[in-house]
Amino acid sequence: MPSAPPVPATDWLPDDSETETLSLPDGRRLAYATYGDADGYPVFFCHGTPGSHVIARLLATPARERGVNLIAPDRPGIGNSEDASVTLEDWPEDAAHLLSHLDIDAAGTVGFSGGGPFALACHRLPEVERIALLGGSGPPSVGATGRVQQFVGALSRHTPWALGRLFRLQRWFAVRKDPSYAVGFVAEETPETDDLAASEVARIVRADMLTSMARGPSEIIREQRLLSEPWPFALEDISVPVSVFQGQNDANVAPSTGNALAKRLPDASLELVDSDHLGTLTAAGGDALTAVQRRTRV
Prior knowledge:
CATH architecture: 3-Layer(aba) Sandwich
Low-confidence stretches: 1-12
Oligomer: single chain
Pfam families: Abhydrolase_6
Keywords: Hydrolase
Region (Disordered): 1-21
Domain AB hydrolase-1: 43-281
InterPro entries: AB_hydrolase, AB_hydrolase_1, AB_hydrolase_fold
Number of helices: 10
Shape: globular
Strand content: 15-25%
């Protein structure tokens, strides 16, 4: 492939100045960033798959306006977090260590896209009071998924080497092309937000994509495979309130997924968003932050 001038490192590489790190009991490094109001109500943010803490930048202003301290870790093998074979069942332990490190005894949790299952897995933590899903993926038992999710899930199970090549190719183009190239993987409409221009949204989405692949695609492939397998917990066993925000034009996570999640979760509400996958995050992210705060009953 022809060479091209690289984009500035600060535009996409894991930024040590933005993230802090926690040493976990097994010696791994867990990286995280915080956005919004440092003195506000803590909300634990689970990024998508592929994804990283960077996507939480899109919620920085809504978090600050709502008095939310948004805590966004990179899951193992992503960004500055060291690799490990962490499953959906294991992830709450990492989350608990981070909450303890930050001296947090009560928090809301928000999951975007493939981060939805990881947010739901945290239901068993005593610190987690409410959960919100923004275009969150569902377990195989809910039935239909978006066409993108179906395709990537099948590759992760049957031909992971092909999915690795696909991710590497996407990364190569994302480094060299306009940021709008990356947006095309998570949106079918022009991103709109009251707080950021579309060009800034695109820059953040590209930085998120590239940060997620900074250590290679192996962890992303492993997560995709995890999400396409039966989950280690039942939706019916989740007792905390869950607010489901589902884009009606979402090609990544089908609208039927949001409907199914809301029906099967014991204490859930459903809000349909007139947008696609990324638009669900930018349009309803502020509402999700409000929904998971302690003072708000859903």
